[in-house]
Amino acid sequence: MFLSEFFSDMAVYMRYSGVSPMQDETKRRYYKILIEAHALEKGLSLQNPRALFGRDKIDFLMREVKRYDTSFSVFPVEMVIGAFETYIKMHKDLGVANEMLDDMEKFCSEQLAAFELTTSGGLRHFETAYKKSDMTPASFLTSRFSNRAMSKEKLGVDAICEVVKIAQAAPSQCNRQASQVHFFQDQAQIDELLQLQGGANGFSQDVGNLFVISCDLSAWGGAQQRNQVFVDGSLFSMALIYALHAAGIAACPLNLAVRSKKEKTIKRVAGIPQDQRLIMMIAAGKALGQGGYKAAASPRRPSEEVLHIHSPAVEITTGPAT
């Protein structure tokens, strides 16, 4: 049973993943453009971005957008143009001139002339980013962002215990509560873990508090539950991120999409038992917001690309029954 299910997973992934030559080329290009455009946004969101960073990504994006079939969706193009315009402005403010910037301006002009675009990539700016008394629940939820501008100052144990306690309200299949939180403040250990993770370049030197979320495999059994460890662990991780946001603590989730060998190494370095699966890391610390905060725009897809109503819409009313 287990073997057949894992082989079935492998077959589906090989047939439909973004690296499969059998997957639709436009759909694969759509996601690849989003990924690389966001990488550019992340660089812009750093406290002091390096001038003319990301040349390879910029060349890739200009090339791939020209090959992309916009009849599928113009959203990736909008995201690229927004990121490019922010990148160009940053360099103009720095007084930096370069042929690549000229090429980017020409590219933006051509795309804007060809399509009706709403540029939405680049950066978001906040005067006050964390919870205020007049925030509605919806405005609080949508105010969350990945903040890479944080102090190395150590968070207190009371604050850590409180956010973990709040995160424990996350739903868990059959109330297993198998998610585990590993918290680090030893700088040498944090540096080694972030180097293994590999996605915190540009701000890893500012991380003085690091969470590693894992989930205990012993809570799960049967072939049908083979992926539930990641579902439960991810729900807990999201709850922890919101708990940090509510506490006014800067947080930046860091994915752990790593191969088995590296996962074992991370667990060894972190002292995490091998019977736990890694979910993600979360860098955290006191938010640094001199004159406000900035973050990657991370624009969201149009809802019509995400919502699929499979039955006639029913009008929903709220309030007490009459």
Please characterize this protein's 3D structure:
The protein is α+β, with helices and mostly antiparallel strands and 322 residues long. It folds into two domains: 14-121; 129-294, NADH Oxidase (3-Layer(aba) Sandwich), CATH 3.40.109.10. The protein is built from ten helices and six strands, in the order H-H-H-H-H-E-H-H-E-H-E-H-E-H-E-E. The strands form two sheets. It has a four-stranded antiparallel beta sheet with strand order 2-3-5-4, sandwiched between helices. A two-stranded antiparallel sheet has the order 1-6. The longest helix has 20 residues, at 25-44. The chain is globular.
List keywords for this structure.
4-stranded antiparallel sheet, 44% helix, NADH Oxidase, 2 domains, 10 helices, two-stranded antiparallel sheet, 322 residues, alpha+beta
Give the gist of this structure:
With about 325 residues, this protein is of the alpha+beta class.
In CATH terms, the superfamily of the largest domain is: NADH Oxidase
Architecture of the largest domain in CATH? 3-Layer(aba) Sandwich
The structural domain count equals 2
Give the total of beta strands. 6
What is the overall shape?
Answer: globular
Please give the CATH class of the largest domain: Alpha Beta
Q: What's the quaternary structure here?
A: single chain
Order of helices and strands: HHHHHEHHEHEHEHEE
- Structural category is alpha+beta
CATH topology of the largest domain: NADH Oxidase
Q: Radius of gyration in whole Å, from Cα? A: 22 Å
Low-confidence stretches: none
Quick check: average pLDDT? Answer: 94
* Span between termini: 52 Å
Q: Can you summarize the main beta sheet?
A: 4 strands, antiparallel
> What fraction, in percent, of the residue positions are helical?
40-55%
Major sheet: order of its strands?
A: 2-3-5-4
Number of helices: 10
